[in-house]
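Subject: sequence -> structure tokens, single chain

Hey, anyone have a minute? Need the predicted structure for the following. Not urgent.
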Amino acid sequence: MRTKLLEMLLNGQYISGQEISDKLGISRTAVWKHIKSLKEDGYDIDSQFGKGYRLLRMNKYLTPEKIKLGLKCRLLAGDIVHFHEIGSTNEEAKKIAEKGYSEGTLVIAEKQTGGKGRMGRHWQSPATGLWSSIVLKPSIPPRDAPQLALLVAAALRTVLSKEFGIDAKIKWPNDLLVDNKKICGILTEMKGEMDKISYIVNGVGVNVNQEIEDFPEELANTATSLKIIKEMEIDRLLLLQKYLEALEEFYLDFLENGFEKARKICIENSHTIGNIVTIYSGDKEYTGKAIGLGSDGALIVNINNQEIPFYGGEVSLRGKI
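Reply:
Had a minute. Here:
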């Protein structure tokens, strides 16, 4: 309802409460309550007796009604849960998945206080970034779930290139880098049984409008943001909408045709393949040359002339030969 109301206000002209009431099929009191709710979320709306309501300025947040305006998605973001601040969007997404929320539900936060990456690491999540998680319920074998992290990487890489002219590279299995600096981390978590997936949560953290000084000293040489790269403010709403549209396209193709479309993009834009790598898996480490990406999403590493597939782990690049 808020999305429809916002659409009516977008022309910048006054519109009477009665006209809104008639078009939306709700009472004048309900109109007033929705207007009040929008104002509380930061929308600047002028109210004039005898004229009605006029939108003066949008808010700065990624609120559900703004995300849905013009969004070309059939499956993703049908339901959107928004927070101004939360511990972790992935944790919240898992909670709502347990409650039976529909596939495609998007959880988004302006700021995370307990954002996390792989291996339980803390992820800096200020209000200038993009922090979101999506609930998916694919009918695929659980062994194929790791492919979805690469699906997300391929979708986001495609958007950054097409919409913003940014040549990001995909570091297997879950990072995007520009000039060897991290701009995006992907965290995929699954709940299921041996032969069935209950749900998958795909979390994405993108450094969007952070300044150099926003990064802690220990990350200054290893992380960057889209704003730093482009030397301009990036439209977070545009980035999110284009990412959701691209991800839906990749996901629906994946369900119908498998992993090949995303796999091709991951290979063509790999930061890992061709390098000598060390993979840390549990308490073991393996060093060899990354030579390819399997049809199942595994990183193929040549170790002592044997081609070994890896399905997860922490990767450290040692250089090329």
